[in-house]
UniProtKB/TrEMBL annotation:
Protein name in the entry: Iron complex transport system ATP-binding protein
The species this protein was found in: Seinonella peptonophila
ABC transporter domain ranges (all copies): 4-240
A single GO cellular-component term on record: plasma membrane
Keyword field: ATP-binding, Cell membrane, Ion transport, Iron, Iron transport, Membrane, Nucleotide-binding, Transport
Coiled-coil residue windows: none
Top-level taxonomy: Bacteria, Bacillati, Bacillota, Bacilli, Bacillales
């Protein structure tokens, strides 16, 4: 199981600093949810810790070693990332796409080994899509496609999986199915899962650890009960939220919310 942390991380787009001196350790073997308003740096943070984008200053450490010093293939054997809107090559079947997860272990253009094939089949079974193996990816529903992408990440055989808004564009039922699948993979396979989420109640319900970002700075990090508070949500989202407790999960839940008075005044002035 790999450890992942940042030290004084800074990321900029042009002259605009997006992530500012961010130092944090991501819990191993846990589910971490990153929350924050649009443009606060959530997706940028994921891209930085997976080396998709360069950093301006600071370090991202995987197993105590800077990721910039690790080869792309070795990094891909340790960490998988599922972007917000993944795209598959036209004409691929489910089995073919999931098999792409074995790429970091291939040598040249060699064929997959029996172990590779078995691992792909295991990933298909684990995500509940083995019966779709020979279907075209393009013919699937949104929820099914998301399971395929998660299966591909699972086939990559990494201990860390990063996901950027994995429930985007899904209806409530499929959102819940995806979140429960990720929870199952964490509990049974001990995967470290780090994901960006917009749904605060999903974040509080399924995450062991939450990080609240505002303008590239960590406002609060900790257990859901520490982050999902009226004060933190007011600072991060400029909302007045009423927080209760889910009677089934005992996790915090946002019952209702409204704009803070000063936000209402600003909106009225702008109108």
């Amino acid at each position: 199981m790999q450890s992942l942390k940042t030290e004084h991380l800074q990321i900029a787009y042009g002259s605009q600093l997006v992530i500012k001196d961010l130092s944090i350790s991501l819990p191993q073997g846990k589910i971490t949810a990153i929350i924050g308003s649009n443009g606060c740096g959530k997706s940028t943070f994921l891209k930085a810790i997976s080396r998709i984008i360069p950093i301006q200053a600071g370090s991202v450490l995987l197993d105590g070693k800077e990721i910039r010093l690790q080869s792309t293939k070795i990094l891909a054997q340790k960490m998988a990332i599922l972007p917000q809107i993944p795209e598959a090559v036209e004409g691929l079947t489910v089995g073919e796409l999931v098999a792409c997860g074995r790429f970091p272990y291939q040598k040249g253009f060699g064929r997959m080994s029996k172990y590779d094939l078995d691992y792909v089949n295991w990933a298909l079974e684990s995500t509940g899509i083995a019966h779709l193996k020979h279907r075209d990816v393009e013919a699937l529903s949104g929820g099914q496609r998301q399971r395929v992408w998660i299966a591909m990440a699972l086939a990559q055989e990494t201990s860390i999986i990063l996901l950027d808004e994995p429930t985007t564009y899904l209806d409530l039922c499929h959102q819940l199915e995806i979140m429960q699948l990720l929870e199952q993979l964490n509990r049974t396979e001990k995967k470290t899962i780090i994901m960006v989420l917009h749904d605060l109640n999903h974040a509080a319900r399924f995450a062991d650890y939450m990080i609240a970002l505002k303008e590239g700075i960590v406002v609060k990090a900790g257990q859901p009960s520490e982050v999902m508070t009226t004060a933190v949500l007011a600072e991060v989202f400029s909302i007045d939220a009423q927080i209760g407790k889910d009677p089934r999960t005992q996790k915090p839940v946002c019952l209702t919310y409204d704009l803070l008075p000063e936000q209402v005044e600003q909106k009225q002035i702008s109108l």
